[in-house]
Amino acid sequence: MRKTTTLSIALFAIIAVACSSAGVTGSPTVSEAPAPSAAIASVAPTEAPAETPTTAPPATPGPCDPANLALLAPGTLTIGTDNPAYSPYFEGNADGSETSPWKLGDPTNGQGFESAFAYALAEQLGFSADQVVWTYVPFANSYKPGPKDFDLDINQVSYRPKRAVAADLSDGYYFLNQAVVSKSDNPIAAVTSVAGLADYRFGAQVGTTSFETITDVIKPTQAVGVYDNNNDALAALRAGQIDAIVVDFPTAYYMANVQMAKGTVVGQLPLAAGAEPEHFSVVLPKDSSVTACVNTAIAAMNADGSLAAITQEWLSDKIQAPVFTP
Q: Mean of the per-residue pLDDT values for the chain?
């Protein structure tokens, strides 16, 4: 019995100790935070991540982008004009060479008012000079009904509503007067008024505003000579078949000073009563998708002064003549 009692007491003591260790509920000991290790202490403060640069999406080509224009040949701007190509609108090559089929002036060299304007307009539309191709288009063919073999035609075509029936005509790129050119030894050279012109014999190219100016402004008492082109009219003037030719003022100046011996610009003609100032327009096929783009380009050239600079260089600085009184 004693032995049993001794064992029981010992076992009880072991259990008591175990239960006492598991049941401690006193406040926990607060330990100090460990010192940072050298590796942790050497890390630099974290910076905010740099923003990843974003690339703007490519611009969507607009309706006037060359790739979106309905052209005779994609990527090429085909420009028509008449032949011979007259100065001061088109000038010959400096070395005297000719580029077939062009006579007198060469549209392809960028020299002369309309050649310079054409290349500046093409650049404004997004075409480089080597993307421009010129083609021969007789004057009256540019605005007559039917298919066109050009994207643009630049050939001193004055705006007239009847011309805009079968073709598109752009906003004006040059405003002008018609003028009378003759020989300096013809009595008409001394005339200073429109009324004084009526008794003389006149000629002009068929289908032009020059012909209309003779009939509507001068109102001559004699029949008007009608010619296929200005060269034929000039031949008639030299031969004494007519006394004077009516053409746009820059052409009159060229005729009098380059194409004729003893030529003279008698004077510039005023507008008919109530008439709008005459201006040259670019001709395009009827309802062309390029027309609005050409008008936008001309407006931009007016705004930045480039069109005025071209006009000054090729026309304004070179030609002067009086205006007829009534």
A: 84
